[in-house]
């Protein structure tokens, strides 16, 4: 297929009610949830959240309610996006792995933020859109979200929705089922 392991990511980003971005602010990644799926054993490993300091926007109350991420959490555990990319390269050998996400937002936001900062994208090679793979595998007529895909498979969501690490883990579980 691609490589022996797939890195599944899910991003949480600064957000605003009704998608109305405040003047002078841009969408910033504030969490990179990541885990590995071994294609031979089907084991999911190395699940973690990497909290990222927003450089072009602030975390508001709406965003905190949705993601659970507070400015205090970012102040305590956050690192800059460039450092987060380096951490992914070092801990996950991302340059030689296929990477995946549930939809295209994660891929597009990684590309956009790397471009804005003028840094190298931490992932190389193929990107696998798990949402599209799910639709095609089950011959559905339209794309469905993460929770609905789990419902379709009669699987419970594990963890908290809009937690990057938990969403990445659940996307990996869906990919496990597709690969069975």
Question: Could you explain how this protein is built, in words?
Answer:
The protein is an alpha/beta fold and 180 residues long. The protein has one domain (5-179): Nucleotidyltransferase, domain 5 (2-Layer Sandwich), CATH 3.30.420.10. 39% of the residues lie in helices and 19% in strands. It has seven helices and five strands; from the N terminus they run βββαααβαβααα. A five-stranded mixed sheet has the order 3-2-1-4-5, sandwiched between helices. The longest helix is centred in the last third of the chain and has 16 residues, at 164-179.
Tell me the Rg in angstroms: 16 Å
Secondary-structure element pattern, one letter each: EEEHHHEHEHHH
> Got a strand count?
5
Flag low-confidence runs: none
Identify the CATH class: Alpha Beta
- At CATH level 3, the topology is Nucleotidyltransferase, domain 5
Main beta sheet: 5 strands, mixed
Amino- and carboxy-terminal Cα gap: 14 Å
| Classification by helices and strands | alpha/beta
The CATH superfamily name is Ribonuclease H-like superfamily/Ribonuclease H
Could you provide a short overview of the structure?
This protein has helices at residues 61-67, 71-77, 81-92, 105-117, 130-137, 146-152, 164-179; strands at residues 5-13, 29-38, 44-51, 98-101, 127-129.
């Amino acid at each position: 297929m691609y490589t022996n392991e797939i890195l599944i990511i899910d991003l949480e980003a600064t957000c605003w009610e009704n998608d109305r971005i405040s003047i002078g602010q841009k969408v910033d990644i504030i969490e990179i949830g990541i885990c590995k799926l071994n294609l031979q054993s089907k084991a999911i490993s190395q699940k973690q959240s990497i909290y990222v300091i927003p450089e072009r926007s602030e975390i508001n109350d709406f965003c905190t309610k949705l993601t659970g991420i507070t400015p205090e959490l970012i102040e305590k555990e956050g690192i800059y996006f460039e450092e987060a990319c380096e951490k992914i390269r070092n801990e996950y050998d991302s340059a030689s792995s296929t990477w995946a996400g549930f939809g295209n937002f994660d891929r597009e936001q990684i590309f956009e933020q790397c471009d804005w900062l003028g840094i190298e994208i931490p992932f190389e090679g193929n990107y696998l859109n798990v949402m599209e793979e799910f639709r095609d595998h089950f011959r559905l007529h339209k794309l469905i979200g993460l929770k609905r895909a789990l419902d379709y498979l009669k699987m419970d969501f594990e963890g908290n929705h809009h937690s990057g690490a938990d969403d990445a883990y659940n996307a990996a579980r869906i990919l496990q089922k597709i690969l069975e």
